[in-house]
Amino acid sequence: MNEQQHLQELIEMANANQGLILRSENQTSALAEIICASDIVWGIWQDESCPHGVDSMIIKGRGRLMLIQQAPRAVTVKMTAVPCRELAEAEAMRQIFGDGRAVPG
């Protein structure tokens, strides 16, 4: 899979998750559930200065990705993406729900 295909897959996941979040009664809880339910979560947002007009960061699962790279065989993980307005929002999600939490939950 090339970079453009990977980004397209992330965009599709983020759009689907955005629909779930917007339809929920408690959007923060819905976002937390989506992030909690996956091993690796990407935050993505539009950025015209980036290739393909999209930028991304890992909100949850950076350590898992490093282990996968070192694994001698394929590893199954659940991956998803959530929409963000900008890098700062993705970083806030990382700190609240993802790898940046003071106490992992």
Unreliably modeled segments: none
The overall average pLDDT, rounded, is 92
The main sheet orders its strands as 2-1-3
Radius of gyration: 14 Å
Q: What's the end-to-end separation, in Å?
A: 32 Å
* SSE series: HHEEHEH
Tell me about this structure.
This protein is α+β, with helices and mostly antiparallel strands and 105 residues long. It has helices spanning 3-23, 27-36, 62-70, 87-97, and strands at 40-46, 54-60, 79-83. It is built from four helices and three strands, in the order H-H-E-E-H-E-H. A three-stranded mixed sheet has the order 2-1-3. A hairpin with a 7-residue loop joins strand 1 and strand 2 (54-60). Helix 1 crosses helix 2 (27-36).
Q: Helix and strand layout, with pairings?
A:
Elements: H1 3-23, H2 27-36, E1 40-46, E2 54-60, H3 62-70, E3 79-83, H4 87-97
Parallel strand pairs: 1-3
Antiparallel strand pairs: 1-2
Helix pairs in contact: 1-2
Please provide a brief summary of the model:
The protein is of the alpha+beta class and 105 residues long. It is built from four helices and three strands.
Which properties best describe this structure?
105 residues, alpha+beta, 3-stranded mixed beta sheet, globular
